[in-house]
Amino acid sequence: MERLARLPGPLLAAFVVAVSAACSQDANIASPQASQPDGGAAAEVTPSQDPPRPHRAFPDTSATIAILADQLPGGLTAAQQRVVADRFVGTQKLTLDQSRPLRALKPSFLVLHYHLAIWQSAPGVSFIVDGRTWGNDYREVDKHEAWFWHNANGQRVASSVDKKLLMNVGDAAFTKYWGDSLVEQVRSGDYDGVFADSASPALLQWEANAPPEPRFSGTGARDNKFAELQGRTFIEAWQSFMTSLDAALAARGVPLIPNTGSFVTGWDPTRYDLTAGVFVEGFADPGFTERDWKASTNRLLSLADQGKIIILQNYLRSTNDLERRRYYLANYLLVKANRTYLEYFAKSPLEWYPEWGLDLGRALSTGKTVADLAQGGVYGRDFARGMAIVNPSGAPVTVTLASPMKRVEPVGGGAVDANGALSGAVHSVIVGSIVVPAHGAEVLLK
Question: Helix 172-189 to helix 234-250 angle, to the nearest 10 degrees?
Answer without folding.
Answer: 40
